Amino acid sequence: MTDHDTSPPMQPLAHSSSLRLFRAFMESLGLGTPQDLDADLVRALDQPAERVPARMIVDLMQACALAHGRPDLGAAFAAWADVAGYGPLSRMPDHCDTVAEVVEAGLRFMHLENGALASDIQEDEDEAVLRCLVMVDSRQGSSQFAESILMLSVRVVRRMLGDFWTPLRVEFAHAPPTDLKAHRRLFRCALRFNAERHAVVMAPRDLRRPSRVADPQGRKAIEAQLWAMDQAWSRGAGELAERAVAALLGSGEARLDRVAHSLGVEPRTLQRRLAAEGLCFAAVLDAVRRREALDYLRGAHRPALTELAQRLGYGDASAASRFLRSQLRRGVRPTRPPA
């Protein structure tokens, strides 16, 4: 693979429970799946294996929302589903003392449940930002999957702190739907669309407030199960590097040295492990940037080069412009027009 190869270095997997839950949700609404679904996705719905390509749930949610004219479908699904029905990790909120502990478990073990998702958390004196990162390049966009994860995150915190709890705001890195009634009813907080990230923003104190449902007795058993699953999980250097790059990209810190440090290895070690898989760091970085650019361009109402450059980790718009033209053969305006 050359430095200019933009194909993804790996194909994230997800537990098929997400597919089964979403299909049950659609049936509860009396809605069918679109007729033009990918053949692999149709087979996965009919005879799901334990693990399926993670893009399938992202593609399915987006296709169903478009086919049925339901821009709230992802959020509505997350509001309907059992928050503890996705696997061992989804049961952790009932056994952790604080939201911070749940976030930490998610950072460590999310790949076991859904490789389409990664997250990070940033905290200052005023805000704690739980950012959700979509790790697959969906064919029709990933806004529905992102909204389902944001709604699920809000529900988890409400489960722990009480249904009265609301975030400071929820941010969406795509354009708003025409009608926001459903989103306002579900999220019950300030909503910000066309943002630079998908994120739930809360008060820092909420991260460490004691949970009202904590049951520490079962936590050790769940953690042991997760650790055993993690030991059996065969993750290549490409997958690890891609998740680290995605988490660091928007901050402009997605460099080889920083990515290697976040993975606990030396830069040369990371390069050697990538090379053993036929990869190089530049290819991983390009693949993540290409996915981020496509996701932004699909969702932004008025794409702006300066805004996209920041999402791609570039210090100036001209570098982002060169990337777009070399990788996607298209351009974007340098500034966002006035509203």
From TrEMBL:
Stored Pfam families: Arabinose_bd, HTH_18
All residue ranges annotated as the HTH araC/xylS-type domain in the record: 239-328
Gene3D superfamilies: Homeodomain-like
Keywords: DNA-binding
Keyword DNA-binding: yes
Keyword presence, DNA-binding: yes
InterPro entries for this protein: AraC-type_N, HTH_AraC
Domain of life: Bacteria
Protein name as annotated: AraC family transcriptional regulator ligand-binding domain-containing protein
Originating species: Phenylobacterium conjunctum
Origin organism lineage: Bacteria, Pseudomonadati, Pseudomonadota, Alphaproteobacteria, Caulobacterales
